[in-house]
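Practice problem: Microcin C ABC transporter permease YejB
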Amino acid sequence: MGAYILRRLLLVIPTLLGIMIVNFTLTQFVPGGPIEQIIANMEGQGDVFESISGGGSEAAQSSGGGGGGASDRYLGARGLPPEFIEELEREFGFDKPPLQRFLDMMWSYLQFDFGESYFRSISVVDLILEKMPVSISLGLWSTLIAYLISIPLGIRKAVKDGTSFDTWTSSAIIVGYAIPGFLFAILLLVLFAGGSYWKIFPLRGLTSDNWEQLSLIGKIADYFWHITLPVVASLISSFATLTLLTKNSFLDEIKKQYVITARAKGLDERRVLYGHVFRNAMLIVIAGFPGVFIAVFFSGSIIIETIFSLDGLGRLGFEAAVARDYPVIFGTLFVFGLMSLVVGIVSDLMYVFVDPRIDFEKREG
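Answer key — C-alpha cells:
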C-alpha cells in the first residue's frame, strides 16, 4: 500500500502542473486583462489607481504625448502616456516574458506564497482563509443531508425493487437531477424568499444584521434560517447519484449466496439487511464521502453563493475572474486542484480502511 500511495503522490505534481499550464496559457489569449480593466475603469474613475502602489499612482498622474509604443498593445489605451502603461506592466509583472512569469509563479506557489490580490490589497492566502468557512459550511451540510436521505431511500428502493414505489421515486429523483441548480435556486427564492409568494426565509447572506446582539441559541437559529435555501439548492442534484448508488450496491449484495444462506437459516429480513448486507453494501458509499463532499464543494459553490449572496470561495472566484485578478484566480486554482488530488488519495485510503481486503497494488498489477 505504501508504494501505491507514493506513486499517487508523485502523480500529483505533473497533474497539478498540467492544470496550471493549461489555465495560464488560456489567460494569455483572453482579452480584458488587469491592465485593460484599469484602463476601462479610468474612464469613469480618476482615482482608480489609489488601489495600486505609489509608482502606479505617479504614472497615472504623469502627462505626456499620445499613443504609440506600449499603449498600442492594450484596448482603449490610445492617448495614454507610454510611460504610464510601462509602469503598470511593471506593477503587475507583465514586463517579463510569459514563460518567466509562469516559472516565477510556480516557484512561489511551491512555497505556498500566492502573492497579493491586484485590487484588494490583501494576500491571497488571507482571502482564501476568510472565505473558506462559508463554502465548507455549505458543502458539509449539503453532503451530510444528502447522505442521511439518500442511504435510507436507496435501501428502501432496493427492497422494493420493481414496485410502484421504486418507479415513482426513480422518476422524482431523475427529474430533480435534471433541473439545473441555478434554476432551482431561483425558484426557491421566488417561492420562499419574498419573490412573489411567501417570505419565509431571508433573501441573501448567511447571518442577519443584528447577529452580534443575538444570544447563542438565537445565533444558531439565525444561521440555520439563512442556510436552509442554499443547502436545499445545493443538494437537489446529488440525491440521484447517491440514492441509485446505494440501491445498486444493496441489490448486488442481496443476490449473493451468503444472503440466501442467512435467509434459509430463518433470520428475519431486518437482521439480514442491516446485520449482513448493510456493511458490505455501504463500503463504496461511505468510502466515497470525501469525493462527494469535494464535488458539492466545488461544483455548486459558484452558482449558489452568487445567487444567495454568500461571501464564500465560489463567489470570490467568480469576482476574481470578472476583474481578471490573476493572483486570486491562479492561487485558488492551485489550492483547489491540490485539494481535489489529495482527496482522491484519501478516498482510496477510505476504501482500504472500510474494507481491508481491498488491495490497490494487486489490482494495478
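Discussion: Residues 33-111 form one domain. Students who identified this feature from the C-alpha cells alone can consider the problem solved.
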